[in-house]
Amino acid sequence: MTRPRLLDLFCKAGGATRGYQLAGFHVTGVDIDPQPNYCGDAFVQADALDFPLDGFDAIHASPPCQGYSRMRHLPWLRDREYPLLIDPVRERLQAAGVPWAIENVEDAPLQRAAGLFGVHGVLLCGGMFGLPIYRHRPFESSVQMPQPQHRRHEHVIQRGRMLGGRADVSRGITTWQQEGGVGDHMGNIDRARRAMGIDWMTRDELSQAIPPAYTEWIGGHLLAAIRIPTR
Questions:
Q1: Where are the alpha helices (DSSP H) in the chain?
Q2: Which ranges constitute the DSSP H helices of 30-170?
Q3: Sign of CA dihedral 15, 20, 26, 28
Q4: Residue 180 lies in domain
Q5: Is 87 within a domain?
Q6: 136 occurs within a structural domain
Q7: Direct distance between the N- and C-terminal alpha carbons of the chain, in angstroms, rounded to an integer
Q8: 15 in any annotated domain
């Protein structure tokens, strides 16, 4: 049986791609930069803002996050300008007429719950999937999906150090949950790969990736929406 086709825009090395493959999609990745470690079924080096969207059953997009990241407030980054692409990307996906999802960092202007005009949102965390990593990521989608239960965090990282004790999720901490001090600085590449469920990326690629478990879950809901059998 032919797998439904999903387009992964701004794909990088394919953390989101692998999850959609596990969900049952044939995935074509698009990125403006070469991606020699890309794990998908097909790759096209092109600008995601004008790449043709026809011919796909679903679309995912992870626009550059630097303009929305909390890191932009650091003194040495305040004067830098970054592209803010969520709005134009959303407009393109809505016009495509197929199920879609957009992923970004916590402070990005993405829907966090069911909203007007058929747009829905959820926040995903590695703890929801039994992963030893937090890495909060909101997803906005044309498809309705339930918000998974978000358990209290057992560890937090502050200033690059692992601290014991619990942290309320409302503090907005995004970090690794990994005993031994592995944080967002990616101090141990092998441990980071295991935590993410990714074994093909470099350190820099991992720092920009999301765990495939997130999009495997999202992909299940996209598949249900397009009603295409995968077996």
A1: 15-23, 86-96, 189-196, 203-208, 212-226
A2: 86-96
A3: negative
A4: 5-226
A5: yes
A6: yes
A7: 6
A8: yes
- Is residue 172 situated within a structural domain? yes
Type of residue found at 71: M
Do the beta carbons of residue 76 and residue 42 sit within 8 Å? no
Spatial distance between the Cα atoms of 200 and 96, rounded to a whole number of angstroms:
31
pLDDT tops 90 at residue 63: yes
> Does the pTM exceed 0.85?
no
State the pLDDT confidence band at 170, using cuts at 50, 70 and 90.
very low
Q: Which phi and psi angles does 65 have, rounded to 5°?
A: -100, -10
Residues contacting residue 123 through CB under 8 Å, at least 6 positions apart: 106, 112, 136, 137, 138, 139, 147, 150
Neighbours of 146 (CB within 10 A): 8
Residue 174 binned pLDDT confidence (cut-offs 50, 70, 90):
very low
Judge whether residue 70 has pLDDT over 60. no
Alpha-carbon gap, residue 120 to 11, rounded angstroms: 22
Amino acid 9 reads L
List the CATH number of the domain containing 189.
3.40.50.150
Give the position of tokens 């996906």.
Answer: 93
Tokens read off for 48: 């995601």
Structure confidence at residue 113 (pLDDT): 76
Answer whether 142's CB lies under 8 Å from 167's CB.
Answer: no
